[in-house]
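input
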Amino acid sequence: MKKRVEKSSKEKVDKVDSVTDEEPPKTADDYQCSGNLELDFTELCKLMAVKEIPSVKIKRSASTNGGVMDNQFQTSLESQMTTWSSKPCLQIELDNEDHGSVKEVKISGWKVDEVLLQVLSRLLPSLSNLQCLHMWRMGLTDHTFNSMRNTVSLCSNLRKVVLEGNPLPEQSYHLLIGEDSMLTDLSLRNNHIGEEGARLIGSALSTVHSANKNLLSLNLAFNSFGDAGAIHIAQGLRLNRSLLCLSLSYNQIGDNGAAHLAEVLGPFALSHEEIVERRKLLIKGEESTMVQPSLVSLADSHERPVSVRSSSSLDRLSKSTKNSTKKKENPKKEEKPAAGQAAKKEEPKVAKKDNKVPRSQAGKSAGKDNNLVVSEQERVEVVETVNPLLDPGIVHTGGKVINPGNTCLTSLNLSGNKLTEQSLKAFLSSLEGQGEGGLLRLSLNRNQFPSDCDTYLKIQEMMSLRDPLKKNCSGRVEDEHSEPKTTSEA
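output
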């Protein structure tokens, strides 16, 4: 009897083991990514029945092995990340020896079909350290681009995207820089972007109703949108106050497009649509701060810029001060000027802060003291979110409303286009009209004007004084996105 009981119990155990061992195969939807790209990528490809699974090549950071790496070995690793591969492979860079520390993924020179895109859509968002996604000539279509864009939006720490050599019929690249996009660096070189693509990108940068607030660097070099596209990009720069670096080199831009770009760098007159939107914001701002309606006079509204804030700024300020202590309430008292003189005293302070904010956005976390009083943090936050249509520097003159211009942009590359000395005069005039802030680098080489013309020499001299990195470069001005240096700048 004992033997029978033992035998039956063993059979039960064997059955349980066999059930656990013979679980039904998992699907890609059931698979839980571990964060290890090599393992997850291979497993997901198997579950998705990928016939030829691309290999994974690893490039470790230079900090590997205590910061010491053989030069020859480092060079070979660099070449693995930059050379074209005849066979599909996923090139990755690790932040350290941990295989879960992937900070860059590169797909270069091979077509990614819809099945592999589904694998990537599951894989990439699981990489918590992923900061850069590089895609070159991967054969995207409008449909697969939308899929990739959705994947990009799900990557929490992804800030840089390089999408080059991928022409799209619908020219929908602007979807990467929508108002809710967290990308800070975007390269769209060599994508055959035409006038319509440039128009969509310009609208994504800013309109009278919305603006991108996170993108710091945009590279549109080696496209073909010409003067018409440059005008659309200039339109997007009118109310954008986040973009620091812009490359428009080799885009067949002539004097007409260059003149519009130059115009937005210096003081410019607001359009009718912008004036109407400004008046709405002024009225809305006055109502939000509980100012008497009788004081909202459009004739003298430009004299009280301090009391005017955008609705988003006021909402953010009210939320952060709901449960604040008495100390946090002090700034509110200071913000209510008793008379017109008090308001005038505050004007220069706010204007000065507002001019400095855009330039510091890229590294503001490093420059701020962690022990800042909460009230000061709130005050800075309010200034940063002021709508450009409510810029304290706006003035009324000659029947026009003049905006001080885009002084946030620090680097502009227009090399390799069709500019003549005529457009150089427009740039010189705008640069002279810029107050605090403004361009630090302006690349105009390889255009259609003599390198020794007076206007170009004046611009070179002015820019060499502005850019501390170029003071000792004998007046030569280059942008970080510029192409290889040549001896001739004409």
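quick obs: The CA atoms of residues 180 and 365 lie 20 Å apart.
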